[in-house]
Design goal:
The chain has 8 helices and no strands. The protein has 2 domains: 99 residues, no CATH class; 70 residues, no CATH class. The protein is mainly α. The protein is rod-shaped. The N and C termini lie far apart (72 Å). Helix 2 runs antiparallel to helix 3, helix 3 runs antiparallel to helix 5 and helix 5 packs parallel to helix 7. Helix content is 78%, strand content 0%.
Length: 176
């Protein structure tokens, strides 16, 4: 249901749905203000107590992680507390979000740097191998150079380098 439809329904079920859908402390304040008005009627003291308990034990802890709420608060006090503390919580959430984003960005950067470093080391090792083979055996066939350039693992390149060191000719290396 749309908020406008829920707002026109003056009951606690609609208020609970609106609170669950709310995207900030200001929206929660408006709903709690309406609930305070509805629950002022005589004979609704137990309902007001149950609703307040739900707000304090279920709703707010799921929205405001790490914030402790006294269990003895009345609904009016909960609304006032949200009004007073809402901005500081928003600032805290923004700061936590920025710190988390920065940490994730740094982690990704480090991983990319490590991968780039490994790729650079692999490219350098391929170049050294090709230079050494060209020095030992002369001009290298283009298809052999392409095969060496396509090697993507340090293990495979190490194995080829060890075989190249023991090879008496390029043909012996290629045909093995």
């Amino acid at each position: 249901m749309a908020d406008s439809e829920l707002e026109s329904l003056r009951n606690l079920a609609a208020a609970m749905f609106r609170l669950e859908k709310s995207r900030g402390t200001e929206a929660m304040e408006r709903v709690l203000e309406a609930a305070v008005e509805w629950l002022r009627a005589p004979g609704l003291e137990e309902l007001q107590k149950s609703f307040t308990e739900w707000v304090l034990k279920v709703l707010l802890p799921s929205r405001l992680r790490g914030v402790r709420f006294p269990e003895s608060l009345k609904l009016e006090e909960v609304k006032a507390m949200l009004a007073e503390s809402g901005l500081s919580w928003t600032d805290q959430w923004m700061q936590e979000g920025m710190e988390k984003g920065l940490q994730q960005g740094l982690q990704q950067g480090l991983q990319q740097g490590q991968q780039q470093g490994q790729q650079n080391a692999l490219a350098k090792a391929r170049g050294v191998l090709l230079q050494d083979l060209a020095r030992r055996f002369g001009s290298l066939p283009e298809d052999f150079c392409r095969r060496v350039e396509a090697i993507a693992s340090i293990e495979e390149l190490t194995e080829l380098t060890l075989r190249a060191g023991a090879a008496s000719s390029l043909d012996a290396l290629v045909n093995r």
